[in-house]
Automatic annotation (TrEMBL):
Gene Ontology terms, MF aspect: ABC-type transporter activity; ATP binding; ATP hydrolysis activity
InterPro entries in the cross-refs: AAA+_ATPase (IPR003593), ABC_transporter-like_ATP-bd (IPR003439), ABC_transporter-like_CS (IPR017871), ABC_transpr_TagH-like (IPR015860), Bact_Polysacc_Export_ATP-bd (IPR050683), P-loop_NTPase (IPR027417)
Similarity comment: family membership: Belongs to the ABC transporter superfamily.
PROSITE patterns: ABC_TRANSPORTER_1, ABC_TRANSPORTER_2
Location of the ABC transporter domain: 45-263
Protein name, entry field: Teichoic acid transport system ATP-binding protein
Coiled coil (residue ranges): none
GO cellular component: membrane
Length: 263
């Protein structure tokens, strides 16, 4: 198995077409295969081994089939495609959560997946989760205390911040997660469908924040099924279709071509 994301790489010489722009992520002939155990009954008496099953067998899902592109500083790249086309797989590979089966990902710094979600605990209050999420992002306790009011304000959760997070609606949870993650100026930020559950006003503010991160020399990947969000936010769009990079370029052109296939 190939190594996962190689970070801290000097990418300046990796791409001749850079035109002086600074490449921050290079994806080179990336393949990802999942091995899934399909059907079959567990064999009795094998105890904890899930691998031994009668019938069924191992199925391989080839989720990404040779994807290559280079992302540059200051770009916000929309990632579109039908359900199951491989968008989330690509994003998880960029942050090193899913290893490539073949090919490689090089990054100038470790990309952050907007998913402080993993670090948060539903039974704890919003307040405590801000601390946890902040620590997960690498902030010190003092830094978190300094950011706390902004996070609560951005999420508009003033009245609810002392309640357990499990009592929040899905939109409120998404706000809190976004507000925590976006409190940091990321070099490479990945947002996978996080905006989908927010209401329109929150979506607008989130999109504005994404643009701000990008303007401050960050690179943002935004995975979304909302073509409006993509067109409002992105400077470039990548269309993944059945694990293959179908198109990469101007947002309007790529979105139009994608929507044409949906008719
Ligand atoms: N953990 C996993 N184990 C096995 N197969 C997986 C796993 N994650 C994804 N897949 C498979 O990989 C393919 C790509 O899935 P992925 O989640 O990347 O799609 P997606 O483009 O993000 O879809 P959506 O728009 O629904 O979010 C699908 O066929 C899916 O079934
Ligand atoms: Mg997905």
């Amino acid at each position: 198995m190939a190594e996962s994301t190689k970070t801290g790489v000097d990418l300046a010489n990796q791409d001749a077409s850079a035109n002086g722009r600074k490449p921050v992520v290079v994806v080179d002939d990336l393949h990802v295969k999942y091995r899934v155990y399909a059907g079959g009954k567990p064999v009795k008496g094998t105890g904890r081994s899930l691998l031994k099953r009668s019938g069924g067998g191992i199925r391989e899902v080839h989720a990404l089939k040779g994807v290559s592109f280079t992302a540059y500083e200051n770009e916000s790249i929309g990632v579109i495609g039908s359900n199951g086309s491989g968008k989330s797989t690509l994003m998880r590979t960029l942050v090193g959560l899913t290893p490539p089966s073949d090919g490689a990902v090089y990054a100038s710094s470790r990309p952050n997946l907007l998913g402080v979600g993993a670090a948060l605990i539903p039974d704890l209050s919003g307040e405590k989760n801000i601390q946890l999420g902040g620590l997960a992002l690498g902030f010190s306790k003092q830094e978190i205390n300094g950011l706390r009011d902004n996070i609560v304000q951005f999420a508009e959760l003033e009245e609810f911040i002392d309640l357990p997070m499990r009592t929040y609606s899905s939109g409120m949870q998404a706000r809190l997660k976004f507000a925590i993650a976006a409190s940091k100026q990321h070099e490479i930020l990945i947002v996978d469908e996080a905006l989908a559950v927010g209401d329109q006003r929150f979506r607008k503010r989130s999109e504005a924040r994404i643009r701000e991160i990008r303007e401050n020399a960050g690179t943002v990947f935004l995975v979304s099924h909302s073509m409006k969000s993509i067109l409002d936010t992105c400077s470039r769009v990548i269309w993944i279709n059945k694990g293959v990079l179908q198109m990469d370029g101007d947002p309007k052109e790529v979105v139009d071509a994608y929507q044409e296939t949906k008719k």
